[in-house]
Amino acid sequence: MAVSEDRVVRGIGHSVKRFEDGRFIRGRGNYVDDIVLPRMLHLEFLRSPLAHARIRSIDTSAAEAVPGVVAVVTGELLAQHSLAWMPTLSGDTQAVLATDKVRFQGQEVAAVIAESAYVAKDATELIDVDYEPLPPVTSPQQALAEGAPVIRDDKEGKDSNHIYSWEAGDAAATEQAFAEADQVVELETFYPRCHPAPLECCGCVADVDPATGKATIYMTSQAPHAHRTLFALVAGLPEHKIRIVSPDIGGGFGNKVPIYPGYVVATAASLLLGQPVKWIEDRTGNLISTGFARDYHMRGELAVKDGRMTGLRVNMLSDNGAFFADAQPTRCKAGLFHIVTGSYDIPAAHVQTEGAYTNKAPGGVAYRCSFRVTEASYLIERLVQTAAYELGEDPVEFRRRNFVRPDQFPYKSATGFTYDSGDYEGALDLALEKLGYADLRREQAEARERGELIGIGVATFTEVVGAGHGAEYDIAGLRMNDGAELRIHPTGKAVLKLSVKSQGQGHETTFAQIVAEELGLQPEDVEVQEGDTDHTPYGLGTYASRSTPVSGAATSMVARKIRKKAQKIAAHLLEASEDDLEWSSGRFSVKGAPEKSTTIQDIAFAAYTNIPEGMEGGLEGVHYYDPPNMTYPFGAYAVVVEIDRGTGQWKVRKVVAVDDCGVRINPMIVEGQIMGGLTEGFAIAAMELIDFDEDGNCIGANLMDYLIPTSWETPAFDLGMTETPSPHHPLGAKGVGESATVGAPAAFVNAVVDALAHAGVRNLEMPVTPDKVWVALQEAGLGG
Amino acid sequence: MTVAAETGSLTRAITVTVNGEARSAEVENRLLLVHFLRQTLGLTGTHVGCDTTSCGACTVLLDGTPVKSCTVFAVSVEGREVTTVEGLAPAGGLHPVQEGFHEEHGLQCGFCTPGMMLASAALLAENPDPSEEEIRWALSGNICRCTGYQNIVKAVQHAGAKLREGS
């Protein structure tokens, strides 16, 4: 914290109220659907009602005849421009509009472009598609079974639904650990398909100017720069003639990382018609066709010897839907799942994953989780609790004995990560203290005597965020680095331009505070700009909790570059040697003569008015940050639930969440992120589910079936913090956006299982709905 | 298929008082109130989140009562009073609910915020000192995906205290 004589610079550690709030609370946000351009047309999709079918023919004539309809686009038309298929972020291909077959319910089949959205919608109903139904494949087990229908027969030589095999760790060492173990504990579990469902659906306004050839695409993009490059590669447009603008985004949670057919068709239509085209997805379109999350079948085995975890073996089967479109680093087919050893010092581990095509929507990584880290965290935290029961031990003590100790950092995990810093026991102790753990265990035992069921669930997670070092981590070949450009105006006000894009995280405030900390300006004097690729430096965008670890670091570094130049100007102004100056709280002063000083504002003015001979004018810079390592936030969550033995309903009595995300830049915003993440973790544990019937019909296609918790269901949260700085981040920050969604699901499920564990219950599958608990109660002889 | 699409003729002239001002337009009978507000009048502070009356992003006040404008026809509010987020604040100032959401960090992406604030304002108009349970119940028709609601509860309490102070 920087302190000057007359003021406190509200840099790091200050809960500065958000600058972006002003427009949002007045209804003056600018979301993509708020954008209206002259002569703008509207796009509406016809989607497939079937999960798997061959398209015999598409008749668009009746739709084309509707007054107000300008064009009907089919896959056949796109194929004439080589746009019927597009590459995915995982190196596969995805149909933009179906040509040969439909491969999941809700797939885009045709698009109507009309003068109003209402007319476009009317006309989609007049498109006549003749389908030949094919047998649907609705699970990866079914997909990989002998004789399963081949979904991707578009791919030459493809004769199965198998997508990839991927492994990490050391199989032989793990084998040996299991051979030498006292005990082996197993858990087979399924992390079901859920959906980020940001409150704003996806959409765009594509505006290709026929006079200049410039394509301006306003779109719900968490990664505008990466999307610009992909647009250039997909559409063959020159990259300098593409401008992606992410306006205000109404929540992302990973849903707005992939490129969707809507963006491509709207852009192609605008190019062909010479008019702007708007596509705004409806909620059903969002839930049934855009990036879902999870759908991971997992089997974990833990080898234990003398009370220590000695080996971990995991086999997984991933349901990737009809196209392998996971957004994840290229070399990591299962994302960063191999963080699965979690907070524990497990000397040997091996992870094996298989991926399969099914007749479901593609996607597979998104939803507030850094590349499958939540699946990994869920598995290990559930498995550790199961092992503790099997060993007859308190799950907390079993964890404590097996933690990676503070003196072991940097810690090399058995699957290849190098954890930067941590104090797992410190976070756990604080959580247990806030919870009153020992008293609760006594109360639980007494309650059981009375026939009442209380459960206490704990999760001590470690996640991996801030991808990542460019040599190891790329998406579609693009190194996962980010730029920051900082310009100080003559009057000492600054503009910071970033490659990332907030979807509610409060970048306009947090990043201004970083500049404030580094340069001694007040955060109000720093305007943060992002989202417009014509006016911001390149970078991979906001997801995987990477804005603060990567762009936050870039911001610090560029501010420090500017400070270096400022020091030279200060030396000139003070007629002193550069080396005789010292910096504190926004000013340089002469060592030993503090009355001889100059402020950053004076220096900024001098940069444009009075510089030493031979110096380049201005006060600005750019920095591209390549993280030397990822960051490893962690935490300890504890949940107390009460079970109704008659109905199987469970009620949350208390939630304690202790997070350690390193140095907190704006503690208020950090806590806001954590509470939002806890709610989404609770949602996944308790109610959210994208399910399918045997015909491949999506159950969960609207917000009446896909249950998102409201204020009524959502519990209150008691937050705590510890602070273990990252040693390699310039500010010691680690990133926090996803921690709570990574850690929370296991804590909730562990709590419900814990209430039934004395009767032998070891597992309940998410979402843990009352009917599942009721069945478990009956089977365990605990029914009321 | 709809007759309107074929003939384009099924329209009606309506006059609605929006944020205190009489607004008249010739609209399609099937035009939803939310689209009347957003497209006909350009009041884009009211958002669409789900199309099925589930999420509350489109909440506006109809004669002071919260309604979800994605499932109300514009023609059905002829002659009535609608308040949107743009009409919540007195000119140049902020409604206590708006202040509360800012002060207590009751918003992140801002998409649910207008509807959430209007539902909150309606609650406080009836009950200026609601309990946490009453707030949670009153807002249970509005989904927020970002905040986890805890700070929204605080925001409403903040606004309630402010309103009670002023009355």
Description:
The complex is a heterodimer of chains A (784) and B (167). Chain A has 784 residues and is an alpha+beta fold. Chain A folds into four domains: 32-136 and 205-289, Alpha-Beta Complex (Aldehyde Oxidoreductase, domain 3), CATH 3.90.1170.50; 137-194 and 292-356, Aldehyde oxidase/xanthine dehydrogenase, molybdopterin binding domain (Aldehyde Oxidoreductase, domain 4, 2-Layer Sandwich); 422-465 and 631-784, Aldehyde oxidase/xanthine dehydrogenase, molybdopterin binding domain (Aldehyde Oxidoreductase, domain 4, 2-Layer Sandwich); 481-625, 2-Layer Sandwich (Aldehyde Oxidoreductase, domain 4), CATH 3.30.365.10. Chain A is 28% helix and 25% strand. In chain A, the strands form ten sheets. A seven-stranded mixed sheet of chain A has the order 3-7-1-14-11-12-13. A five-stranded mixed sheet of chain A has the order 9-17-16-15-10, sandwiched between helices. In chain A, strands 20-30-31-34 form a four-stranded mixed sheet, with helices on both faces. The longest helix of chain A is centred in the C-terminal third of the chain and has 28 residues, at 547-574. Chain A is globular. Chain B is α+β, with helices and mostly antiparallel strands and 167 residues long. Chain B has two domains: 3-87, Ubiquitin-like (UB roll) (Roll); 96-166, Orthogonal Bundle (DNA polymerase, domain 1), CATH 1.10.150. Chain B is 35% helix and 16% strand. Chain B contains six helices and five strands; from the N terminus they run αββαβββαααα. A five-stranded mixed sheet of chain B has the order 2-1-5-3-4, sandwiched between helices. In chain B, helix 3 packs across helix 6 (150-166) and helix 4 crosses helix 6. At the A-B interface, helix 1, helix 4 and helix 17 of A face helix 1, helix 3, helix 4, helix 5 and helix 6 of B.
